[in-house]
Amino acid sequence: MVAKSLFTAAAVLAAAGTAAATPVRRDETHTVTLNNNCGSGNAVFLYAGDATAQGSTTITGPLDGGVAWVDGYAGADCLASGVNCGIVEFTLTNSEGAGDQNSADYSLLTGDGLGNHQYTYPMTFSFDGCSGAPGQCTGDSAAACPGAYLGSATTGGAPTQCLADNVGITITFC
User: Which pTM value belongs to this model?
Assistant: First the structure.
């Protein structure tokens, strides 16, 4: 009987140790707020989990591969995923001890297979839940669009990053 009790106690302790070593996934939400001051079109975004362009909303769970642009901007032919126009790229995710982090940048990549993202309108973004933002993108150079990926230089940009849970992003066009 004592051997059975010791075995049961050891099994319970082992299970408790395993549970403590395994991170518990917390509820995760990220709010995307889009502001369009351009006078035409609609600020929209899509992401890897939902390829339907949408406006401001809150996403439950991680938001990977987000892309925001002004759809229908007058004088430009902004296509799906912001092709032909400037975009803000972003990922919002809780780290959960995995080293993941929130990240955003401007993309004006124009090389083959890179989406032909041209500077079209001023853009700015900031995280809601941690500090740090590169400043407004007002042109198609490194000086005018801080941290942007430009031309065909897929390694030339400098994403803004932050490590916090349930971070949102506010993106403003014009």
Answer: 0.82
